[in-house]
Amino acid sequence: MNKKIVISCALCGAGTTREQTPHVPITPDEIAADAVACGKAGASVIHIHARDLQGKNTMDTETWIEVVSKVRSAASAAGVDIVLNLTTSGSAFSEDLRCGHLPLLKPEMCSYDPGTMNWANSYVFLNTPKFLERLGTLTQELQIKPEIEIFDAGMIGNVEFYLKKGFLQLPLHYQLVLDVPGGMPGTLESLAYLTSKFQPGCTWSITGIGKAHLSMMLAGLAAGADGLRVGLEDNIFLEKGVLATNVQLVERAVALSKMAGREIATAEEARRILGLVKHV
């Protein structure tokens, strides 16, 4: 297999804390520096969450503007081309806030979580039908590629519904996120089932959470994934007991991809593979 592979790095997520690892980027400057370093290491897509002054997850629009402005400025200064993929997740926030940064920042990609689940059996990961209709419509108006994050099998059926109703459009890009408690386990059986349900002609990427991180990356390579997602949002260890940096996780994904005969896509190549529109 010789098609190029898109490496995505999810820098910090909503929940990874400094108590868990000192390497997680929290401030806008740290996120910008890590985005550039990961771009240099081989990540063509950077998936971003924003944090407030206390380091907690936020969807505050002004914070988003600061974070993304610093990422773009740092990347430009370093001569690093990266695709920005901004989250829209955040059950604790209003739907207005979850969408508010998109028309102002015009990223090339944003997350689209096509269903609600009991995340880790501890809280409701809420994505209402009304919000999904609104977000799907907005991504089409703004020409932002929705990254369809699949945590559970039922979300595939929801995707089919929103396609039929016109809130999503082909070709899709699926992002499998496996081994979240409450979702599908990070196993070969899960991977085989989900990939069999994808729409023809679509692209897909994979990540495993925690202990499933490395095994799902290897499984994705074996199954011909278009992309691999790594990063401290999903996994904080390089190996048992050894904390990782985002750059180390990207470097490992690059090395394994090359061992599997896959060349690493640049940001411009990722745009062609994923069908992205560059706005900024």
Going by helix content, strand content and strand pairing, the class is alpha/beta
Terminal-residue CA separation: 33 Å
Q: Which strand order does the major sheet show? A: 1-2-5-6-9-10-11-12
Mean pLDDT: 97
Count of separate DSSP helical elements: 9
Largest sheet: 8 strands, parallel, barrel
Spans of at least 5 consecutive residues with low confidence: none
Number of strands: 14
CATH superfamily: Aldolase class I
Q: Report the portion of residues in β strands.
A: 15-25%
Shape: globular
Tell me the count of domains: 1
**CATH architecture call:** Alpha-Beta Barrel
From the 3D structure, determine the CATH topology. Answer: TIM Barrel
Radius of gyration, taken over Cα atoms and rounded to an integer in Å: 17 Å
What percent of the residues sit in helical stretches (DSSP H or I)? 25-40%
